[in-house]
Protein 1
Amino acid sequence: MRKILFLTDLHMTDAGQTIIGLDPAERLARVLDHALAHHGDAAHVLILGDLAHHGRPAEYERLAAVMARCPLPITATLGNHDNRANARAALPWLARDDAGFAQASFGWGDTRVIVLDTLDEDGIAPHHGGYLCGTRMNWLRQQLHETLEPNLLVALHHPPLVTGFDGMDAIHLSNAPELVSILSRQGRPAHLICGHVHRTVSGRTGVLSYTLLKSPCHQMPMKLGPGSSGLSVDEPGAYGIVLLHDSGPIVHTEDVFDAPSSVAEDPKSA
Ligand SMILES: [Fe+2]
């Protein structure tokens, strides 16, 4: 089975700046080192946006420096905190379709992996919300038309679904029904993998299953219902490990703690 590592919501800052006291560069380096030590056999690293916290050139340059330690191929898309032009200038591994959006499509074994760019720089969605314009939707339709693989994994920043975190649900993918409709009618099982919420969430919307992944840096506190989308908590950074099985994707998540966890075998356990 091909193994793919997933990162999302890196929120890189300028050197010396922190988010709730956390240095995104230090956190990302720790998570990436853990992922490479334990899953160095992965074929690819996919990054699901919010690459930088303010979208500044220096933030992307700092991110490029941290990711330079990664020997695996990298492909990234963008989130609501990003700036497309600044990311493009600094990150050679930013995905790119023919129209310049950070989108890509991979045929890996029995799975087609499609990466979508939900960054809205035209102010169509609510502030920090996501949007897929007609150009991007048509690109998706073309990829689906050409897909031969029996399984589909769609990777994007903004979830086209609600999670129970009201503040985040207000800024999800603003044209979610259109995307859900396209993916629900394309004729093969599909799983969505997203970022944005900074929390591990899994579920199903209609016929589509999904997983949302945590950030390597700061997480959403586990407070469902009303609450600001800006709430953050210092919990362990995390990443995703996806196995592309011929029956469909298997999604694992790993939290990375300050000290290594001790592993021991209990002879009475199965
Ligand atoms: Fe984020």
Note: The chain has one domain: 2-256.
Protein 2
Amino acid sequence: MVRSLQSHTDDRPLKQSRELTERASKVIPGATQTASKGPTQFVQGVSPTHIQRAQGSHVWDADGSEYIDCVMALGPVLLGHNYPAVTEAVTEQLTDGTMYTMEHPLHVEVAELLTEVIPCAEMVRFAKNGNDVTTLAAKVARAHTDRNVIATQGYHGWTDVWMGDHPNLNRGVPEAVGKHTERFEYNDIESLERIFDENPGDVAAIVTTPVNLDAPEDDFLEQLREIADREGAVLVFDEILTGFRFSLGGAQQYFGVEPDLACFAKGMANGYPISALVGRSDVMSTISDSDFVYSMTYAGEALSLAATKAAIEVQQRENVHEHIFEQGSKLVEGYDELASEYGLEGVTGVNGFSPRFKMWFRDEDGNADRLAKSLFMQEAHKRGVLFTDGHLPSYSHSDEDVEIMLSVYRDCMEILADAVKEDAVEDYLEGEPVGATLRERTGEDRS
Ligand SMILES: Cc1ncc(COP(=O)(O)O)c(C=O)c1O
């Protein structure tokens, strides 16, 4: 039973969270493995820091408190934690081993499966992280076109090609690398055209997230397709967040525009570590050219492939995406209604699509308001909803979960409304406010 239904007094123990964070800070730089999961992303002193176990749409922290999960490990857990069909497939594969000296039949089976379900996929290579395949996509595009410049928008990972051009985030990247990455704005074709004008005959690829928190406008994706064709550049969709989430075939299927290459990771194997670069055969074949190197020891690890196959089969059999859209839209609409009921329309609201949306908090000048976000998060965590602002609903989020989340958000709105009225949001905070997210630091997903 979720805490908010038992009582609204917060008596959660946080002893393990505190001890683990203290130990982590001595042996793990930043006390985290993932920027969005570190202590600074939560209200320090109020939020839990370590999750011990998870089932369906719920998680239990290291002190045993239960929460409804809003972001499902930042997106990978599409069906639900420990989803039976996936766990069974992985358990069965485990008894046959995990890594082999040669290829395993699953390498072929899952590659074939991806070519069946993803519109642009004619060939497939596997990897482990989103970064691996976005970086591979840039390298393949450069090799295929014999050009240098990557025109890009959106977050694609931490590697040199994606961070080299960020003045405050490019420490450790040789200056020369950043010179070949050029940014354009989503929904701003002019900003992309400028890159082609300034780099005639040298733009290898347009690498973009097909959709961000804002919807594509004025046939933006179709225009990208046309420009890539006109210029002989490779169109790459980074579907790491949208793949398997907007539809089984990703956002390219949802919006009906096919890129030349596409990157998949989160959502692919319901939480197991795997990613894939897929795309047109002539472009993908570059990977097997004698002067091109791409190879990873763990790329073909069998548990994650078994998980991928099982997760896709669930999506083929059941109305996974319909459910995710339904639960997401109830939350989006419910949140906006609450914000207006409490007179907080200018203070907080929702951006995005039902399968991926994000709550924004703004101050009087329209800037991101981390204090308001921290207060909302604090009150949600105290009531058993693991709110972070981003929401990635899963197939396991039940109607009851949605009801509880909205009833908790009602409480949070009421408290936030009081605090705003009293001009005392900071005074309501019981811990350290949250810091900037990685996407805020890179300029993506502005609130
Ligand atoms: C759109 C997008 N691309 C790339 C990445 C990087 O993926 P990973 O963290 O698995 O390397 C992410 C991660 O959040 C992402 O959302």
Note: The mean pLDDT is 95.
Protein 3
Amino acid sequence: MLDKLTQLPEDSILGLAAACRVDPNPHKVDLTVGIYMSEAGICPVFDAVRLAQQALIEEETTKAYMPPAGDATFNTGMQRLVMGGDSPALAAGRVSSIQTPGGCGAIRIGAEVIHAAAPDARVWVSDPTWPVHIPLLGSVGLSFETYRYYDPAEHGVNFEGMVADLQQARRGDVVLLHGCCHNPCGADLSLEQWGTIADMAERQGFLPFVDIAYQGLGDGLETDAAGVRLLAERLPELIIAASCSKNMGLYRERTGAAIFVCASADNARALVSQAQVAARRIYSMPPAHGALLAGRILSDEALTANWEDELQAMCRRINGLRTSLMSKLQQHSDRDFSFIEREKGMFSFLGLTPAQALALREQHSVYMLDSSRINVAGVNGANIDYLAEAVGKVLRGEAA
Ligand SMILES: Cc1ncc(COP(=O)(O)O)c(C=O)c1O
């Protein structure tokens, strides 16, 4: 039976990262996977995580199953982190959540709940979006529509196109939005534009589903959540998928939360029961370690301050890299790269063709996605000149 199954192609992003790992060129540059890399080119463990981990190891008395909704301290901490401590919806008890295996788990649980409520729901996704959104939502049986989002010519959000397309979204439809630091393009909505989306959701009755995987890495924890908080203030219902992978560096611990903003406290409780039953069908209980660390960090003032300081430093570094990369690229080519400085978070498209991205890979060992999406955090003082020179050469059509 199993011999019918054939080898599948490698994941496009992970496959490129693997190819970079085995590239013997000492100058190779890996800008593929969306993980934060320090100046030293490593993905660091947060100091607050290390401290929380030491305390946990000393205090832990059991490895028994987690409750189906996960750790209560974690859930409360995540609700406050995303919604803000003064959220009216939180105060009204209209918010509930369950701990999930990463932001991916939260997206999948959100999709399960949507499917239970409206099996025929169409999910509107941005063009482009993070490719993994499609299998995560589609495997539940939801169908897709696309709205225009990124304008490659202008290197920014095509908001007119987005609004025109979303005018066709109706009650019973879901609109998937990136809370901040859009993956793959780095172009985010302004607060005014979030307001327009809230107006449309109110008028047309669609349900926003906000994926916020990079809170704290764009402009800071509060500013990055301003859009999702605006929706939560204005609308009766909202689903949020949050992740601690990037902003706490807990990638491998699979730590996330599916958060439900509901019309009533009763409905918020009902949503937890729905989400738990959905989780039972897939993985039963969430993993403990990451959520126990995150819960501890979010509930301890000193650890929170320590974590926030380190996160702010990362955010400043990314924004500094954006400025340096823009000017280095402009030194080596006659193109305007100012959009890199305007965009937010880890990702930007460099605006190269797939053939140019391939030439960078084959001739210079500079690895980015074929779309020319780069992980800005993969740039550092040691590789920025090499990278900018290589991009300049490829843009001029020069051989290596
Ligand atoms: C847009 C977006 N959403 C969600 C996630 C989920 O991340 P994780 O499952 O690692 O928490 C990612 C990770 O790269 C992402 O880029």
Note: Residues 34, 102-104, 130, 183, 211, 213, 243, 245, 251, 256 surround pyridoxal-5'-phosphate (CB under 6 Å).
